[in-house]
From TrEMBL:
Signal peptide: none annotated. It comes from Streptomyces violaceoruber. The keyword Plastid does not apply. The keyword rRNA processing does not apply. This is Phosphatase. InterPro entries: Bact_Sigma-Reg (IPR052016), PPM-type-like_dom_sf (IPR036457), PPM-type_phosphatase-like_dom (IPR001932). Keywords: Hydrolase. One of its GO terms (molecular function) is phosphatase activity.
């Protein structure tokens, strides 16, 4: 049996709020590092926030146009040499199962070739990978890392929504998935969820009516009802039915949610879908951008005893699917012009070369350029799924 590394053992034994201090001390001893910094991406995914005890932290670093941001975006180590100080700083992605958390930056004395040796860089990346796993676990028991991610204060509704989400990206050989919500620090009704098993990927995209706490409570009820039904092993139709009844039983039709439910069969690419509302789906296949239309059914919680019927379609390797809430395509410019479907299709086309986790942030930035810097009338959600498919087993 392969034993855990010294780094993993040290992290497991550390108190949750001390895991970065443990990694920093280990790297300083092992590689005589001058500095070791952990930067976590903020909720808007525009800044990398240094981890430290508030309020004594360094200024944030922009995700775009910075050396740490380059490592974060490319998900690969990026080294920068300072000839005047004869040092090199290695910026390493801190990610777990495709969920991009931040960057570990380590400054070392430069070697004869001007950079860290390959084995040193590999060891630093192992430290970053181990730290990523422990940060996810530690967030259950300490607020240190959640506080570090905040460039500003979250509204209470946004706090509830971010705690509800599974993450902002994930990856497996069959697919890569990323999603983002805006305004990041004041969202209320939009939400997404996903869960994968050996052969299935479940994805839901929800747009709850209302504002503030009421919208957040409604979405929390719906998402947890869907999770409860899914974890009981029920079919997609029964998941929708039970969530519908949970919402209707609480609000008697006065509040409801527009929701898309998907089940992707990983071995075949067969997809089962229930369209219970307004979120829309776009597909990019062989360079062509098109909207996928489904039979619209009633939003969850609108009426009592609504039966939901699933439809089926197939995804092919190389397909990209984008899930978009009405806060995107109904967004108005300062002059009152709606963000058109043509503009949305152009945005989808312009981001076709980006990896799935980066697409939602870029598309929402383009939407902000249309909407302007004033307060948003509605929150917005973009999710991007790249389908790779499962390779056939070798005989």
């Amino acid at each position: 049996m392969e034993r855990p590394s010294a780094v993993e053992r040290a992290l497991r034994e550390a108190a949750p709020h001390e895991i970065f201090d443990v990694v920093r001390s280990l790297i300083e001893r092992r590689h005589r590092a001058r500095t070791v910094d952990l930067l976590l991406v903020d909720y808007a995914m525009t800044r990398l926030q240094p981890v430290g005890v508030l309020p004594h932290t360094r200024p944030p670093v922009p995700v775009h146009d910075s050396a740490p941001g380059r490592a974060f975006g490319a998900q690969a180590a990026h080294c920068v040499r300072d000839r005047s100080a004869d040092t090199v700083t290695a910026h390493l992605p801190v990610s777990v199962r495709g969920d991009r958390l931040g960057v570990l930056s380590v400054t070392l004395a430069a070697d004869e070739d001007g950079g860290p040796a390959a084995d040193v860089l590999a060891d630093l990346q192992e430290c970053a990978d181990a730290l990523a796993h422990e940060v996810v676990v530690a967030e259950r028991d300490t607020d240190l890392f959640l506080q570090a991610r905040r460039a500003e204060r979250l509204t209470l509704a946004a706090e509830m929504q971010w705690q509800l989400l599974p993450g902002r990206s994930c990856a497996r050989p069959e697919y890569s998935l990323g999603a983002q919500l805006e305004p990041a620090y004041a969202i209320f009704g939009d939400s997404f969820d996903w869960s994968a098993s050996a052969d299935d990927l479940y994805v839901t995209v929800s747009n709850g009516m209302g504002e503030g706490i009421d919208a957040a409570l409604l979405t929390n009820l719906c998402v947890n009802a869907l999770r409860n039904a899914r974890r009981a092993g029920l079919s997609l139709s029964d998941q929708a039915y039970l969530a519908d009844q949970a919402v209707y039983g609480q609000h008697r039709g006065e509040q409801h949610l527009s929701t898309l439910l998907f089940r992707f069969h990983l071995p075949t690419g067969e997809v089962e879908v229930i369209d219970a509302g307004s979120p829309r789906v776009w597909r990019v296949r062989a360079g062509a951008v098109e909207q996928i239309a489904f039979d619209a059914q009633m939003p969850l919680g609108m009426f009592e005893d609504t039966d939901y019927v699933s439809q089926r379609f197939r995804v092919e390797p190389g397909d990209r699917l984008l899930f978009v809430s009405d806060g995107v395509y109904d967004a108005l410019s300062p002059a009152g012009e709606k963000y058109s479907l043509r503009a949305l299709a152009a945005s989808i086309n312009s981001t076709r070369l980006l990896p799935a986790p980066q697409v939602p942030r870029v598309m929402l930035q383009e939407l902000l350029g249309h909407r302007g810097s004033g307060p948003a009338a509605d929150d917005s959600l973009v999710m991007c799924l790249d389908w790779h498919g499962r390779e056939a087993p070798t005989p």
